[in-house]
Every structure is written in structure tokens, then in C-alpha cells.
Write a structure and sequence with these properties.
The complex is a heterodimer of chains A (about 130) and B (about 290). Chain A has about 130 residues and is an alpha+beta fold. Chain A has two helices and ten strands. Chain A folds into two domains: about 80 residues, F0F1 ATP synthase delta/epsilon subunit, N-terminal (ATP Synthase, domain 1, Sandwich), CATH 2.60.15; about 40 residues, no CATH class. Chain B has two domains: about 55 residues, no CATH class; about 210 residues, ATP synthase, F1 complex, gamma subunit (Pyruvate Kinase, Chain: A, domain 1, 3-Layer(aba) Sandwich), CATH 3.40.1380. The chains are: A alpha+beta (about 130), B alpha/beta (about 290).
């Protein structure tokens, strides 16, 4: 019995990624990083900005997401997100643009605490990305 | 009977119209393929979103404290209707069908003594509605600049709606759009998005409900429901753009065919009157020769 499960990542425009032989996925869930293996309990969770890591065999893929919802059921993982980027293709300009956008939003007073927390986190993740 | 010259002019003008409609048909066909593709690609997202929300809402036991986007305000006095149409004309009955559907809904609402507010998306809808419902239209949105339906635009509309909801400007929100079935058939739809109508559960996930939630159900719902509104609008926009192109394609196909028929008819008339003129001249010559 293999220890793999299915994953599907969809964004509003299309089905972004579909894989069948994934051994582990780490998602940035709202209350901390969440590693999902085969036969995980059914779960629905909310994602904060961060990095999704997908392990299939020796291969590792990384994606950056802004937000999303993750649903795991019957050994199939669905991730819904409005914006997702492959880290390999992410260029520096885009990152710095996103950072300044988020910082601008942070400086406005109209956001609530939760939003502020998410934005702070987003800036953090993006900055760490731009260093690499 | 029209003179030969006039007929000739008409034939050439109909022919050039035919050329235009033919070209428009080709363009619509090419665009249709793309629009249809993206409509189909967009479906998994909205379906999944719907499923998750269904699962969540079924897990909520405390109805009274559930998010207002799901449960509604508890009243139904002010209705907000979002009428989604195209920005361009020449697409057959596409816009008229949506407007017709919307108008009958408007009449139902106003006859019940409820307040009606309208947001139009797409300039054609505004043009058709402004004559009768000018005072009801609170906002008109148009995305003439963006070529394809994109999520960014849908999100903008969604945010406007949610904003208005939070300011308690309406109780019930319904969107109108055309659902794309195939090139010939588009079905005008009315869909209530606030409060969310609990549509029938999909059979496959009725078996198990024991999800683990992180964070709590209502917190997820609070985050998810506004997104769902944008998603539903995005879906409507995708369906709409596919429908628009399909409708335009068949309308232009008809126009091309009609123009062809017209050219044929005019050509026959032209030939007849030319022949008649020749015959008349001949008769004149013969009778002139006879009288000598």
C-alpha cells in the first residue's frame, strides 16, 4: 500500500495543479503550519499567506499563496486560492511590489486586527522569500 | 420599380454589410472558444467552494448566531438586484433576455410593496433599464476596458455588494445572468446570493459530516462567505461572456444568411428590370421599323 494521496489546487481561473502521487503536503494554515499525510482526518481550514510545500517522492515543489481554503477528505486534498505562484517563477519585482502594496494597506487605519495580522504575516513571508 | 442604378447600389451595400456580419461571426466564434474554455475551467473552483460552504453550514447548529451573510438580516424589505449584461450590442437577444427576466422579477417585488435597488454590470443593461427604473439604479459598473472576465473585476463587484450589505442597505441580493448551455441556447438565470439559499446537498457528501475545523466553523464561514460572493459573481461573469459570444455568433450567422437571401432577391430584381429595359427598347425599334 503506497503512502500517497491526491492533491488538487484550483484558482478561480482554472485548475492550477493536479497530482496523484503526493506523499506529504505542508500548508500554512491559520493556526500554524499544517502537515498533511495520507489518511489524515477530514479537515477544513483557512490559509494565511505563506508557502505550500508538496512532496512527492524525492521531489519537492513550493508555491506561494496569498490566501485560501484547504479541504481534506477521503485522501484527496483540495486547495482553493485566489492567487498562487510557483516559487521558481516568482520574480523579485513582483515580490517587492506585493510587499509595498501590503505595507501601504497596513498603514491605512481602516483594517481590523485580523487583517492586520494577516498582512503583517504576508510581508514577513514575502521578505524572507526575497532574501533567498 | 427602383431604377437599375439604385438596385446596384443596394446590392453592393447589402454585400458589404454581409462582409461585416461574417467577420463578426468569425471573431465571435474564436472568442467563444476561449470564453467557453475559461467558463469550464472556472467551474471546479465555484463548485468546490459551494461544497465546502454546504458542509460548513450543515455543521452550524446555532442558526441565530451564524453569519448574517448566510442567514440574512431576518427581514426582507429591501431587495438588491445585480443585473449582469454585456458592454457591447449586436448579440441577438442576449441582453434583452436578461432584462426581461429581471423586469418580471422587479415587478413581482414592487407589487409586494418592497423596496427595489438595482446595480447594473455592463453598460447595455443600464441603457435598457434606465428608462423605467432610473430611480432604482444605485450603481452602474462597466468593465469595458478589460478584455476577458477576470477575477479581479468580479472581486470589485463582490466588495461593493458586501459593503452595501454591511451598511444595511439591503436584505436580499439576487444576481441575473445568462447561463451558457450551448451556442444556440442561453438560459437567463436569477440566483439569490444573500442570504445564501441552502440549495440541495450533493448526494456524495451527505454520508460524512465529521470534519475537523481550524479555526472554528463560524470564523471560517465569516472569511469564506464574502469570497463566495465574489466567486459566484465571477462564475456569472464567465457564463455571461461565453453566452454573449455564443449569442453574437448565432445572431451574426443569421444576419449573414439573411443578407445572402437579400442579395439573391435583389439580383433577380436587378436582372429582371435590366431585361425589361432591353425588351422595351427592342419593341420600340421594331415598332419604329414597322411604321416606316
Amino acid at each position: 500500500m503506497s503512502e500517497t494521496f491526491n492533491i488538487e489546487i484550483v484558482n478561480p481561473e482554472k485548475s492550477f495543479l493536479k497530482k496523484e502521487n503526493v506523499s506529504e503536503v505542508v500548508v500554512p494554515a491559520f493556526e500554524g503550519e499544517l502537515g498533511i499525510l495520507k489518511d489524515h482526518i477530514s479537515i477544513i481550514s483557512f490559509l494565511k499567506p505563506g508557502i505550500i510545500k508538496i512532496f512527492s517522492g524525492a521531489e519537492e515543489e513550493r508555491f506561494y499563496i496569498d490566501d485560501g481554503i484547504v479541504e481534506f477528505k477521503d485522501n484527496s486534498l483540495s486547495i482553493l486560492t485566489s492567487s498562487i505562484f510557483d516559487i521558481k517563477n516568482l520574480d523579485k519585482n513582483h515580490i517587492s511590489n506585493s510587499i509595498s502594496e501590503a505595507e501601504k494597506e497596513l498603514s491605512s487605519n481602516e483594517i481590523d486586527d485580523q487583517k492586520r495580522f494577516l498582512l503583517n504575516h504576508k510581508v514577513e513571508v514575502l521578505k524572507s522569500l526575497s532574501l533567498n | 420599380m427602383a431604377s437599375l442604378d439604385e438596385l446596384k447600389k443596394r446590392i453592393s451595400s447589402v454585400k458589404s454589410t454581409q462582409k461585416i456580419t461574417k467577420a463578426m461571426k468569425m471573431v465571435a466564434a474564436a472568442k467563444l472558444r476561449r470564453a467557453q474554455e475559461s467558463a469550464e475551467k472556472g467551474r471546479p473552483y465555484s463548485d468546490k467552494m459551494n461544497n465546502i460552504i454546504l458542509n460548513l453550514s450543515n455543521n452550524i447548529t446555532d442558526i441565530e448566531n451564524s453569519p448574517r451573510l448566510l442567514a440574512g438580516t431576518g427581514e426582507s424589505k429591501v431587495y438588491l438586484c445585480v443585473v449582469m449584461t454585456s458592454d457591447r450590442g449586436l448579440c441577438g437577444g442576449f441582453n434583452t433576455n436578461i432584462i426581461k427576466k429581471a423586469k418580471s422579477y422587479f415587478q413581482k417585488i414592487t407589487s409586494e410593496g418592497k423596496t427595489l435597488k438595482i446595480i447594473t454590470v455592463g453598460s447595455k443593461g443600464y441603457d435598457q433599464l434606465k428608462r423605467v427604473y432610473k430611480n432604482n439604479i444605485i450603481e452602474k459598473i462597466s468593465f469595458k476596458e478589460s478584455k476577458n472576465a477576470n477575477y479581479f473585476d468580479a472581486d470589485k463587484v463582490g466588495k461593493i455588494i458586501i459593503n452595501k450589505f454591511e451598511k444595511k442597505e439591503f436584505d436580499v441580493c439576487t444576481i441575473f445572468y445568462n447561463q451558457f448551455k450551448n451556442v444556440i441556447t442561453q438560459i437567463p438565470q436569477e440566483q439569490q446570493i444573500i442570504p445564501l439559499k441552502s440549495s440541495k446537498r450533493v448526494e456524495e457528501n451527505s454520508a460524512q459530516d465529521n470534519y475537523e475545523f481550524e479555526p472554528e466553523e463560524d470564523e471560517i464561514l465569516n472569511n469564506l462567505l464574502p469570497k463566495n460572493i465574489s466567486t459566484q459573481i465571477f462564475k456569472a461573469m464567465l457564463e455571461n461572456s461565453a453566452s454573449e459570444q455564443g449569442s453574437r455568433m448565432s445572431a451574426m450567422d443569421n444576419a449573414t444568411r439573411n443578407a445572402g437571401e437579400m442579395v439573391d432577391r435583389l439580383t433577380i430584381e436587378y436582372n429582371r428590370s435590366r431585361q425589361a429595359a432591353i425588351t422595351k427598347e427592342l419593341i420600340e425599334i421594331i415598332s419604329g421599323a414597322e411604321s416606316l
